[in-house]
Design a protein that fits this description.
about 100 residues, mainly alpha
Length: about 100
């Protein structure tokens, strides 16, 4: 095997490794971005439901600690809003009775 052939073969190997590494990096980046974007998208959809008046709590589903905490806190806020709305309705009913 001549020097040029060895150099060409080495260049091909490096190119193949570079292509495979780029593909692996792409799929890792895709996985990480989806694992972040999916919980945010789910929370945005939930916020739109609350905006339309659906105050039913939903179970936190994220396995990422920060997103799980965010979903739990949002749930608590929705529960408090529903409770305050119920108290307001009761107080309005009492005022109408008197």
């Amino acid at each position: 095997m001549s020097y040029e052939q060895a150099l060409n073969q080495f260049g091909i190997i490096v190119l193949i490794i570079l292509i495979i590494g780029t593909m692996i990096a792409f799929f890792i980046a895709l996985y990480i971005s989806r694992s972040i974007a999916f919980p945010i998208d789910r929370l945005v959809k939930r916020m739109k439901k609350v905006e339309k008046g659906d105050l039913a709590p939903f179970p936190p589903q994220s396995s990422i600690g920060e997103f799980h905490l965010l979903e739990s806190s949002f749930n608590e806020m929705v529960i408090q809003i529903a409770s305050l709305l119920e108290l307001t309705r009761e107080e309005e009913a009492k005022v109408k009775e008197s």
